[in-house]
């Protein structure tokens, strides 16, 4: 429907499409001036088109005039925008039909976005994964569809992997390893991991960066910035430019695997008092900015209940220890592992002691919390646990939420305002409450978007981390337990007493 309709519009009004495209591509104009040109170009359009049709022509013309490699990205943006603008045009807002249609548009758009991320790889998959982790902030149709990007990242060929190893380590595989598995253990947006055996018999995991990620990432971010600006202009409620800002800041850090190795060593020392936590040892002689070699760790993913049942691992113990680990990182140390998706957190029984262990992987992205922010965040969580409404308002405002502090409290806890009033440590999560919160994410998207642009940038990765951890708890069916709040409260008390 969308592409065909767009093509018909373009054929019928080629002059208007040309005017809009020409204005869009004038050199280095400021965004405001470009938008003014768009509006002037609309005046060239004749009836019967309404505003949404003008926008559709604008988008189609824009992607038609862009460089060839950007065309699929712009085409997808055009089709998604057109779908939203036309599908709901003649339906009464708030009616059952409206919400049913909107859910269908969300689902179609999420699938297009997922396919776009898979086709463009690298930075696009990373941003798609970030969106997929925002369970209680974005409509469920988006988060459930984009979650698959954690397991569907494309792989580099063995020839490409060998070439990166030659360039970085200056040797052939046979000079470095007795064996090197051709099939990767896992592939992610920026790299893939292969199991290998060193000449001294030790088994290692070799993380190798995809060959074109370094050169392509900066271009991808520029394309995303243009698109998000364009979408925000068409849909003012969609103010997600913070995604691009975070990608600009974090991508160079994540692409430096030496930094990841340093983070791994830092957190291993920082949390050494947890005997059940294991961080694989880094092999620095076989590591560079694009290759990271570490001890190989066996285990099942932290959300794999079947694996835990087969190995007699207590899911409640795992959930409690995960909560202890993250409470310590956030409230006590202010040094937070920000990508705890299930593939990065393994569980196992130690073959020697038979005790349960958690293995923490992928240390490329950590958030450092400044002292004032961390202490305000501690006090806010203490207020949320106890139901101290004055404290909730005071510390939410300190963290930038302003008058949106009730929404901020609900977003942060993924609880209803009724539960927040009662104290989230006093009221267990129910299924109906969880459904209510997920449904409200779609209803309050403009306000949530406004909130995410208000709060300090430190908060954005914490929200992603919170949602990933909640997703694990939901899968393990341990989210209703109160023990996590006890551990959290203890860590807050320790942090404030220091």
UniProtKB/TrEMBL annotation:
Pfam families named in the record: ABC1 (PF03109)
Domain (ABC1 atypical kinase-like) ranges: 149-395
Span of the signal peptide: none
InterPro entries: ABC1_dom (IPR004147), ADCK1_dom (IPR045307), Kinase-like_dom_sf (IPR011009), Mito_struct-func_regulator (IPR051130)
GO BP field: lipid homeostasis; mitochondrion organization
GO cellular component, one term: mitochondrial inner membrane
Highest taxon, organism lineage: Eukaryota
Function: Appears to be essential for maintaining mitochondrial cristae formation and mitochondrial function by acting via YME1L1 in a kinase-independent manner to regulate essential mitochondrial structural proteins OPA1 and IMMT. The action of this enzyme is not yet clear. It is not known if it has protein kinase activity and what type of substrate it would phosphorylate (Ser, Thr or Tyr).
Protein family (similarity comment): Belongs to the protein kinase superfamily. ADCK protein kinase family.
Record-given protein name: AarF domain-containing protein kinase 1
Organism annotation: Oncorhynchus kisutch (Coho salmon)
